[in-house]
Specification:
This protein has about 400 residues and is an alpha/beta fold. It is built from 14 helices and ten strands. It has three domains: about 5-230, Rossmann fold; about 240-270, no CATH class; about 295-350, no CATH class. It has a six-stranded mixed beta sheet with strand order 6-7-8-3-9-10. A four-stranded antiparallel beta sheet has the order 2-1-4-5, covered by helices on one side.
Length: about 400
């Protein structure tokens, strides 16, 4: 089972520019979580803070009893081995073929024989659909294949936690759907804790067990997917439907006069930019038939049923409807019969003491969104390669 990550009160600024503050959340072991946020809200900064590549100003990020924020260099080096990271564009060494790129962490961090390394590399290339491509250079393959090669590289040290920075960026919708399926299949196979940061709303709707959103330097919400997917919080609703109408503007938050003018335009029939208005809980991607069931999903059911009574009626409904009739019976719940405050659902979950993900409803302060379009591409291809260099290049 993957490791739990417990983040409390994390804040990060660069000089006088705050990026986000007071972020608290837990990634439950072996579950898949997505952090949404408009460009420039600090999603990449958040991932880098989780692995000690950037140092937050305050707060803690605890993995297996080690606080990544304050631990020694040696402890950080050790703890980082628990993480597999897929940086944007795969962050592969351009002069090495895929085989050597994927073998790289094994050669740097382990004393395994070349025969053993070969077995592992071929296994991870097969898991990511890259069998036969081992001799290709990163420049010779498509963006989707580079992402998968980055993922294969992230898998070779058997990580307990996998972090993915915009795995969908630069991919068409079909390739994105394949990558989403691949992440769910990997989770079923290795039961690692997974965090994906993205601004892709289809990934957010269909992939994770838990969903969060960063906006205006705050964690707006983090909790079971059903909570955000049914939320009437304006920022969350606007983002999940890709509309212009709402608090998120072209490069910053809107003032109330702009919002009123846009509302009037829409009421007069002007298109608001959203092409779809999907509300509610859409089915989650399931592992490809033949793979094991996801242990994280099974554990999550017990965990979420314990907190069912604390959730909104819409979220409760979404959760109950996602259960099979047998599971509804097991937990003692039925659709359209919600659990009131103070009551617990079902005895089946009684033994579960899994910590709950924090669900933080931030007060939205009246500051601008950090505003920088795009990301710097990770370039990790100069001179002799060491793993320390690879990390520090990200
Ligand atoms: N190393 C850095 N030094 C100074 N500012 C940075 C650094 N890295 C990121 N930033 C700033 O932090 C903000 C958030 O960036 P980023 O995490 O890349 O956003 P996102 O990934 O959500 O698009 C941006 O305003 C960016 O300019
Ligand atoms: Mg980014």
């Amino acid at each position: 089972m993957g490791a739990e990550v417990v983040i409390e009160g994390l804040s990060k600024s660069f000089g006088s520019q705050p990026i986000w503050r007071d972020v608290s959340l837990s990634l439950p072991p072996g579950e898949v979580s997505v952090m949404l946020g408009p460009s420039g809200t600090g999603k990449s900064v958040f991932l880098k803070s989780m692995i000690g590549l950037l140092k937050p100003d305050t707060g803690t990020c605890v993995v297996n009893g080690t606080d990544i924020v304050r631990c020694s260099e040696h402890k950080l080096y050790e703890t980082r081995k628990l993480f597999g990271v897929l940086f944007q564009d795969g962050a592969l060494f351009g002069s090495m073929n895929l085989y050597d790129n994927v073998a790289f962490p094994l050669r740097e961090h382990t004393k395994k024989s070349e025969a053993e390394i070969k077995r592992i590399v071929m296994e991870k290339l097969a898991m990511t659909g890259l069998s036969g491509a081992e001799d290709k250079l990163p420049g010779e393959i498509s963006g989707g294949m580079r992402k998968r090669a980055g993922l294969a590289r992230a898998l070779v040290l058997d990580p307990e936690i996998i972090l993915c920075d915009e795995p969908d960026s630069g991919l068409d919708p079909v390739r994105t759907a394949y990558l989403s399926q691949l992440l769910i299949d990997l989770n079923a196979q290795i039961d690692a804790t997974i965090l994906i940061v993205t601004h892709n709303i289809n990934v957010a709707r269909t992939v994770p067990d838990n969903l969060g959103m960063l906006f205006r330097k705050e964690l707006v919400m983090f909790g079971p997917r059903e909570v955000l997917l049914t939320s009437d919080e304006p920022v969350v609703e606007q983002f999940l439907n890709g509309r212009r109408l709402g608090p998120i503007g072209m490069s910053e938050e809107k003032d109330s006069a702009t919002m009123a003018a846009e509302q009037a335009n829409v009421e007069a029939g002007h298109h608001d930019g959203g092409t779809e208005d999907v509300r509610g809980v859409v089915p989650q991607i399931q592992p490809t038939p033949g793979l094991p069931e996801r242990q994280g999903e099974r554990r999550r059911k017990d965990r979420v049923m314990q907190i069912l009574h604390t959730l909104s009626p819409e979220a409760q409904e979404g959760i109950i409807e996602s259960l099979s009739p047998e599971e509804q019976q097991h937990y003692g719940v039925r659709p359209h019969q919600l659990v009131g405050a103070g009551q617990h659902a079902g005895g089946g979950a009684a033994g579960s003491t899994m910590p709950l993900p924090s669900e933080h409803h931030g007060e939205l302060p009246a500051e601008d969104v950090a505003n920088r379009p795009g990301d710097r591409a990770a370039e990790s291809d100069s001179g002799r390669h060491t793993d320390a260099q690879w990390w520090s290049n990200q």
